[in-house]
Design goal:
Shape: globular
Structural class: alpha/beta
Number of domains: 1
Strand content: 5-15%
CATH architecture: Alpha-Beta Barrel
CATH topology: TIM Barrel
Radius of gyration: 19 Å
Number of helices: 11
CATH class: Alpha Beta
CATH superfamily: Glycoside hydrolase/deacetylase
Number of strands: 9
Order of helices and strands: HEHEHHEHEHEEEHHEHHEH
Amino acid sequence: MRGHSESKLERFSYSPIVQRPMLEWPDGNAIAVYVAPNIEVYELLPPPSPHRDPWPRSPHPDLLGYGTRDFGNRVGFWRLLEIMDRHEIRCTVSLNLALCDHFPDIFAECEARRWDYMGHGVYNTRYLYGLPLDVEEQAIADCVETFRRHTGRQLPGWLSPALSFSPNTADLVAAAGMSYYCDLFHDDQPFPVRTATGKLTSLPYSMDVNDAVLYRTGHEADEFLQIVKDQFDVLYQEGLSGKGGRVLCIAVHPYISGQPHRADYVDRALSYVLSHEHVWLATGSEIIEWYRQQGTECGGEKGKS
């Protein structure tokens, strides 16, 4: 017997990747690659949270912590933007929606390039875990409404702010009209997500090919470059060998990889990936749309969420 809370966390079925219907990418490509800049807004003095202090240095305000994050929007974004333009990459932004109002010039550059977006909360200093259901629902609705106010479009995807998802998040994201969800780190392919409110598909996001995770664990940009290469090589060869298409997510943060001593490693990583044939450089929305059009979703759960 499973309790209610346990069953609610069972968002996906077990499906060995070697037993699934073959996933094929457009034009016979072996791998789908998307680049996910986390373009975030941090508050100097955010409302207190009983679960996490975004600025662990005392006393507040933590000018050192805030300043390092603010560098991303003042400098780092613009440095990474040049790199993305050089490689003609349409990014999939993990977007704090407050950016639209606080940094409209940055958002305008993203819009001019037709970048894709996954909502990342309003601020990266406001978390979802521990919120009452109606409060979390309103927080997600605020993101959808802000995006629609600035673009006239539906917000396509979701990655919870600071990965602070709750047992309710997937249901609320589906109910808010989004099509893909990145809070699950369980697969190398998209996969249907069970929700109570609508169809939702997970898009593989990475906590390994992620400059923030590496930076916080003492690894530097040269190691990030090698990890991108190693991750790509294995996924690419699996796709080429007929095991089915894979997804590579490259997650970067302007306040980290936009630093002068790190930016070149991002450039080199992208150059390496894009030097190969049979690579589909896509956005999150394009990957999910193609995946759904195949008719049979991974695990044999056709048309189910």
